[in-house]
# Entry
Amino acid sequence: MSRKTLIALVVLGSLLGIACGVGVYTFIYAKGGSYLTNDPSACANCHIMEEHFSAWIKSTHHAFASCNDCHTPENFFGKYATKANNGFWHSFAFTTGDYPDPIFIKGYNRRIAENSCRKCHNHIIDGIEAHTQTEEPFSCVRCHGSVGHPK
# Structure
């Protein structure tokens, strides 16, 4: 192995080690393990979510649904894939300070919440959709977006 190749490998290994060390430290510091649970208080680890968590505590949904029930898909893979994706982008946004205040739900997560509404309230939705004649698709969260987090 040439000297240049050896130096390149050492530098690459060092950078990889630093990145992994920073990642592990950040995961521990940010209580990353708590996000793998179903504990709703984990969602309030970031100060931006405290208002949403407090609103959920006061809502009627508090007795029936946790954050994961509404904000992650029902299946195991979908749930943890969504948690990993959201966790990465949320931590990136919070670390860089690049997020809107107040925060708002985006398309992919909005569809998950919509599907969750439909799963729990399908008996109501079926009746509404049977009598609704619009070109626009019926959306629970369009009118009831603050149900789980009343203002």
